[in-house]
Structures are given as structure tokens and as C-alpha cells.
Amino acid sequence: MSSNVTRRLVLRGTAVAVAGAALVTPTAMAAARTATAGMTGHGGHDGHGGHGAPAAFDEVYQGRRIVGKPATGEHAAHGGFSASIDGKELHLMQNADGTWISVVNHYETFATPLAVTRAAVDKLRGAVLVPIAT
Amino acid sequence: MAVRKNQATLSATEKRNFVNALLELKRTGVYDGFVRTHNEFIMSDTDNGDRVGHRSPSFLPWHRRFLIQFEQELQKIDASVTLPYWDWTVDRTANSSIWGADFLGGNGRSRDSQVTTGPFAYSTGKWNINVSVDNRPFLQRELGAGSAQLPTRAQVDAVLAMTTYDMAPWNSASDGFRNNLEGWRGQGRVHNSVHVWIGGQMATGVSPNDPAFWLHHCFIDKLWADWQRMHPTSPYLPAGGTANVVDLNDTMRPWNNVTPADMLDHTKFYTYDR
Ligand SMILES: [Cu+2]
Asked: Could you tell me which CATH number the domain at B2-107+145-272 has?
């Protein structure tokens, strides 16, 4: 019982996705992605798209450690937020309407840095982010 | 004059010639240079900063110039080749002939989205993904698996009916023809949702890794030409003096010798079959 509570606290709202990870179908993943991308239905900890700074996060999602935090310098131009998946940078960009995209989901907008980072994890299917060769 | 055709009307020989020219550009590394260039602009084009290739008025002339340059490279391999376009308002399922093994190859397999059929399958050894956001070396597709639908003809017609080319703030928040076609707003999210519908690399910043990129953007280019014919008195905007965006007579990176004005009349370079 108590370990369940602890786990839920650590995972901060990702319990459904993690519990279903082993048997999740692409359709179910798409549905989860849509729900995550929407502005509604979230507890407020990641619902700040468009006004104010988005909340930092540090959690395990689908077995991947995802971390997001306000950034300075180079990243400030792209919305002032940086994210990583298992320690590798995920390039994020904020749109004029406050929504977010990443280099992995470049043509689809998400409400928060957390949502777009989780979407990248879904798309990676275990693959590792690499800096793009230039 | 080169004629760009609907991909659904290509003969077996025309398909083969196009595919072979793509494979040759891939072999020599020329192809990956285009992927790299596109991604550099994807990364640097921002709503509040300098923007050239995307989320800005020059989205259409920039991609027109990009496609012309790519088509010229194809034609160095085979002078008979032109870019085909894919009308996704008509050919809109994973079973459409565009995804045949004789042309672009099919959907990715369920296990890892890897394309395993056609000339761009990893097993051929001729289509490794070298310019990538992750460590997967194979082409991926997830046709229709995400939340995006292909735009309908009615949605496209609604965008074509818009009379103003673009408007302030000249970015992904703008109303007007350009941004509704690019798909940062509006019904159908036209151009963007096609990238998402295909999935795999097409949904990422390195989208030209999938040859479908060229057929998709060729249709977007045709829709711009169709719009110009429908609205002959609607000019490219902005005309001048606008911060961070490419005005009518400003030059566009990376070429620095071509302006939107130079790109307005595509018939100097090619025509469409209809
Ligand atoms: Cu595109």
C-alpha cells in the first residue's frame, strides 16, 4: 500500500501510462498522447502553457528519466526551458500561442514542456537521442 | 519546360526513374545535405526571432527554392525526372499506390515502425538514416497511427479561399493563407498534419529523410500556385521594412541571392500538369 503511494508520488501522474506500458498498443498510446497534449484534465502542475514559466519536472515515464527545467542563455530564445531524456538534450521550442514542440515532434503542438517530452519518449520507443550531425 | 505530375498518374518507368535518381543522390551524400539544411532552419526559425524557412511568410518561397534546387540535383542524374506531387486529399490511405513497393514503399512494421518494403527499406543497404535525432538508422513510418488526419478537400478549399497572403505577427500565430496552409492554426492544420500523419522521420526536424517529404511539399507548392491563380490581385506580404522576416525583396538564407519576388512565378522554372 505505502509503496504504491510512494510510487505514485514519484511518478507524478504518469501512473496510468507506466502501468499500461507493457501492453499498451499504438492506438492507446496515441490516445494517451492526445489526452496529455490537451489543456484540460491535468492537475495544474503542468498546465501553465501560455502564461508564466512552465513547471520543472523530473520523473520516470515509460522507463525513461525525463527532466525539464527553466533555462538561460541559448535556450532562453526558445522559450527558456530545457528538457532531457536519460540525460540527452531534447531540443524544445515554444510557439507564439504558448504551446510547445520538440525536434522529435516538430509539426504537432503540445500544451506543456512535460507533454511534449513525454510525446518524444513515446516516439523514441527506447531509442537514444543524439545531437544532429552538422 | 519541365512538367510536375500527380504521382498517381506516373508510369512504371517514371516511378523507377525518380526512385533511381533519389538512390543515387543518397549514395553520393547530396541527399543528406538537403536533410541537414532543412533541419538547420527548423532549429533556428523562431516565432520571435529571425525566421526564414518555417512559421513565417517565406515558408512558401523558401520551400519553392529548396525544391527547385533538389529537383535540379535529380535532373543531373536523370534529365527526364521532375518532382511528382501527392494529392493527399484524394490518395489518403495506407493502401494508396504511393506506398507501393514500386515507389515509396509502405508503412512501418508495428514492432519498431521500420519501413521494410520498397526501395527505401533499411535491408536494401541503400537508405541509411545518417542525419537523425536518435540512434535508429532506418526509415520509419506510422501512417495514420497518431491523432492527425490527412486534410480534406473541403479544408484545403477553405484555406484557398482566404484572400490575404499573410499578416502580422508574421509567425505561427498569424491568420491568413500562408499560416493556415502551413498549419499552425486553422481547420485541418494542413501542411503540418500531413507530416504528423506519416509519422516516423516525417514528424521530426529531419523530415526530408523520408522521400515523401518532396511529394508532400510539391503539393503544398502547387496549392500556393493554385491560390495565386484564384487571387491574382493578392500580393506576397509583407512588402518591406518588417523585422525578423523576409520581405518581398529581401534575400533568403542560405542562398542569399534569391528573394520571394523571384519565386512568385513558378512557370519560369516548371509547370504543373493541371
Ligand atoms: Cu513540411
From this structure: 1.10.1280.10
